[in-house]
Amino acid sequence: MAAQNDIQLTIPKDDSRTNECQTPNEEFFDYSQRAQWLRAAVLGANDGLVSVASLMMGIGAVKNDVSVMILTGFAGLVAGACSMAIGEFVSVYSQLDIEVAQMKRERTAEENNEQCAKENLPNPIQAAFASALAFSLGALVPLLAASFIGDYKVRLAVVIVAVTVALVAFGGVGAVLGRTPVVKSCLRVLIGGWIAMAITFGLTKLIGSSGL
């Protein structure tokens, strides 16, 4: 009788609720993986653009000769690119040494976590190359903008306009690649570049007019 009274009910499983927050075929991408080279590239591009443009603006404040401005900008490009590459290599390598040493002290972690950590370690060569290349590309903007203009005032105005456009572009590209707010990034880069150029131009003009 007990066997006849046992009633088994089969309730179909509804898998739709378990995955209602998940989208099939949607691939998750960790944008923090780009931080290693993106930071160096964004820093290099903005540094090359702002420092070389500011250097040229400073020279333009006391010298009307276009050849002096171009030679000064080119020297700043070469020196800055080399400095950025070496600086990034040394600093990122120091960071790598620290993280590797920390991993050795934490050998009790699981193997898969250790492998994941190794994949996310900073790459000094990649950072140095990205920084030097981005610096050179950024520095080319004011150089090319001033190379073919003879009039002094027009040359300075064209350099400012070209650098402004490039600052907005670099800020936007960095924000898109890193999936960060575009407007905030562009404004931050643009205002910083304007301040650097204004300070360099003003101080050089002041010192040049005082006869020092």
From TrEMBL:
Location of this chain's protein in the cell: Vacuole membrane
Primary site of residence: membrane
Keyword NAD: no
Source species of the chain: Apium graveolens (Celery)
Pfam family, one: VIT1
Protein name: Vacuolar iron transporter
Domain of life: Eukaryota
Keywords carried by this UniProt record: Coiled coil, Ion transport, Iron, Iron transport, Membrane, Transmembrane, Transmembrane helix, Transport, Vacuole
Reaction equations catalysed: Fe(2+)(in) = Fe(2+)(out)
Reported function: Vacuolar Fe(2+) uptake transporter.
Transmembrane segments: 66-86, 127-149, 156-177, 189-208
Coiled coil: 93-120
Topology in the lipid bilayer: Multi-pass membrane protein
InterPro entries reported in the protein's UniProt record: Ccc1_fam (IPR008217)
